[in-house]
């Protein structure tokens, strides 16, 4: 399925990574469940998808608060990443997004704008043999306020030298769509795996 694009003459494409370029959300969910399970923490699947785009640290802190736990954020984050890395050989790209990457590569510059770490984004893109397609990576740690704040998308536009109104965002999460809208950018909604 090719995703329809909104009308407009876009000068840059900005892509979320997990669930947008990489069909990685099921893998991330597996890694989350294993890492959190080691601490007796529950993470329902519907909540996992609802929180798409939130930084890892925020998720751990919120789960600690909700479930009365004291999971060390850094330890859980490292363990989740380690488990995700083990699953990377099974990673595939989202077909409808991959088609747009192939069609527009070299015509317009691309950026990844992600709530994941640079290590995670780079590993996913390498596993898909797509890392060389992207001019800019904006990842957790590169900005102060995560999605739905527009900061990360505005930073990517600035690094690409393209006005925000001329950027098209590909996103799978509500928070990402809200951030794109707040940045004054048009967006394409990528359905989550359960709805494709």
Description:
The model has no long low-confidence stretch (mean pLDDT 94). With 196 residues, this protein is α/β, with parallel strands linked by helices. A 5-stranded parallel sheet has the order 3-2-1-4-5, with helices on one face. Strand 4, helix 8 and strand 5 (186-189) form a beta-alpha-beta unit. The chain is globular, with a radius of gyration of 16 Å. The chain is built from 8 helices and 5 strands.
Give the ordered list of helices and strands: EHHHHHEHEHEHE
Biggest sheet, strands in spatial order? Answer: 3-2-1-4-5
Q: Treating each run of at least 4 consecutive H or I residues as one helix, how many helices?
A: 8
N- and C-termini, Cα separation: 9 Å
Counting DSSP E segments of at least 2 residues, the number of strands comes to: 5
Radius of gyration over all CA atoms, rounded: 16 Å
**Low-pLDDT windows of residues:** none
Percent helix: 40-55%
Strand content: 5-15%
Category by helix and strand content:
alpha/beta
State the shape: globular
What about the largest sheet?
5 strands, parallel
* Mean pLDDT value: 94
